[in-house]
Design a protein that fits this description.
Shape: elongated
Number of strands: 16
Length: about 525
């Protein structure tokens, strides 16, 4: 407040006023006494009794006493207001040190606690651990379920983590979806620290009750230790953040202890992210096309478009080199747009009976705007929706089955084909196959590669093919690399094959030639 400190000064002025009045009154009395003025006034009052001067004097004295009483009451009220204001300011200062949503300390109070904890560790020669905890894919929770669900996730996690910490351990909220814990270490072993991290990951996995739904999330943790990883708050926190980035790049839902080599890796990753953002703007994302071949006629029936990054200095980069960065940096939407634009431009003039499959990440399937965005893009590019096939994974279905089903149904009604990728590696059930508008299932290559030497694997794949046939679904075997695999799949009713036996992923010009040959009726290969 701009008037901070004014009321105490006002109170001081009133007390000074009281003192001036009292001194002035004594001075006047002394002067009047010295001049015998009081005796003179007394004689006048006796000689002029009809003036009622005694009453006048009494009135003056009463008025003076009343004025003094008013000043005293005002002073008391002023001091009460000052006290109340000071208490309110103290409460406001205290509230400003705690997070308004979760009720735990915020960054400001954490910095104070961190400084004190570090000072104690230095003085006692003990160790201190810093754990930075981040909710994986938290923005997707807000986008898919709403901010109320996001708030429920944060408040519930804060309560769960706080409940498992010791009295001497601290938990604070650093940012939107990031927490930090301080844990004094009783010995040099990291076993106790790792057990704490594992417990935090476990409680993060438990379902969270949000408005009108239940949400399940995961978390990643980065850990730094004093004095091993730094001697000041800034260094320790920065290195815990570096370890967190390492945990996320390793697949999320895990913890990582800081390693001095991580700084170089993190800088490289951040540089790559900047280059990737610029590359998306410059159109450096290209598509390679791998044919899906009819196992009976050996003719291509479509292609899968595989994202590649044409880096200006490092050449053509495969998906593992940049897809994790795309996901961590929240660029999946921009990558999908770039891929669809590229596919539409490449395949616009290919034969109409050849579809092109594009992979869809789980968060995108749960985006309520996906249908409108995708159909608008296809209309703008002049490509029929029936030419595009979206490949989804079972992970997307597990996150929110009902939302996934609504989105898939809307896309399917518009003509977009749907394919369930990596079938058999997740948790698909008959419910998924029966209730979802799926046109095709793709048998994961981990099964295909074991067909020739694993009897149990052959039984599993045979069951998959029989189930798909009963449901009227097209089947694709991924990773076909040998004639023996192709023959077995053909003999057991698999519809399509995809793999190096037929063709490696190829650039758009080569795929165009394959498409033209297919239109002329020539077989693609003689597998």
């Amino acid at each position: 407040m701009s008037s901070r400190g004014a009321p105490p000064e006002a109170g001081g002025r009133y007390w000074k006023l009281y003192l001036i009045i009292a001194v002035g009154a004594l001075f006047v009395f002394a002067v009047l006494k010295y001049l015998d003025a009081l005796e003179y006034v007394y004689r006048i009052s006796l000689s002029h009794a009809d003036w009622h001067l005694n009453d006048l004097f009494a009135l003056i004295v009463a008025a003076a006493l009343a004025a003094i009483a008013v000043l005293v009451v005002h002073e008391w009220q002023l001091r009460m207001a000052i006290t109340q204001r000071d208490q309110a300011e103290a409460l406001a200062r205290e509230a400003s040190r705690y997070d308004g949503l979760t009720g735990i300390p915020n960054r400001a109070l954490f910095q104070e606690d961190f400084a004190r904890a570090l000072a104690r560790a230095r003085a006692s020669g003990t160790r201190l651990a810093v754990l930075v905890i981040d909710v994986d894919a938290f923005q997707q929770v807000n986008d898919v379920h709403g901010h109320a669900a996001g708030d429920a996730v944060l408040t519930t996690l804060a309560k769960r983590i706080r409940a498992m910490l010791r009295q001497e351990e601290t938990l604070a909220r650093l940012g939107a979806d990031e927490f930090v814990a301080l844990s004094p270490l009783v010995n040099e072993s990291t076993d106790e620290l790792f057990r704490l991290a594992e417990r935090i990951l476990k409680v993060a996995h438990e379902e969270i009750a949000a408005p009108n739904r239940r949400v399940q999330v995961s978390a990643s943790i980065g850990i730094a230790k004093y004095p091993r990883d730094g001697d000041c708050e800034a260094d320790l926190l920065r290195r815990a953040e570096t370890a967190l980035a390492q945990a996320k790049s390793a697949g999320k839902d895990r913890y990582a202890l800081y390693d001095s080599t991580l700084d170089a890796h993190r800088r490289e990753r951040l540089d790559t992210e900047v280059e990737l953002r610029e590359g998306l703007e410059r159109g450096e994302i290209v598509a390679l096309y791998q044919p899906l071949v009819d196992l009976q006629t050996l003719r291509p029936r479509g292609f899968e478009a595989l994202a590649r990054w044409h880096h200006p200095t490092r050449g053509l980069l495969g998906a593992p080199a940049f897809i994790p960065i795309v996901e961590d940096a929240g660029l999946v939407g921009r990558l999908l747009t770039a891929m669809l634009e590229r596919v539409c431009a490449d395949a616009r003039d290919w034969p109409a009976d050849l579809s092109v499959a594009v992979n869809l990440s789980p968060p995108q399937l749960l985006d309520p705007d996906l249908t409108d965005t995708l159909l608008s893009l296809l209309a703008r590019m002049g490509v029929a929706a029936s030419r595009i096939e979206l490949e989804i994974t079972e992970t997307a279905l597990l996150q929110d089955f009902d939302t996934a089903r609504r989105t898939m149904s809307a896309l399917r009604e518009a003509g977009v084909r749907m394919s369930l990728d990596d079938f058999g590696t997740g948790f698909s059930s008959l419910r998924h196959l029966q209730e979802l508008p799926i046109d095709k299932i793709k048998i994961d290559q981990s099964f295909t590669r074991r067909l020739t030497d694993d009897a149990d694997c052959r039984k599993i794949v045979s069951s998959m093919l029989s189930l798909a046939a009963a449901l009227g679904l097209t089947t694709v075997a991924e990773g076909v690399e040998s004639q023996a695999e192709a023959e077995w799949l053909r003999g057991h009713g698999c519809t399509l094959g995809q793999g190096y036996l037929f063709a490696r992923p190829m650039p758009a010009a080569a795929a165009r030639q394959v498409a033209q040959d297919a239109a002329s009726g020539a077989p693609f290969c003689r597998a």
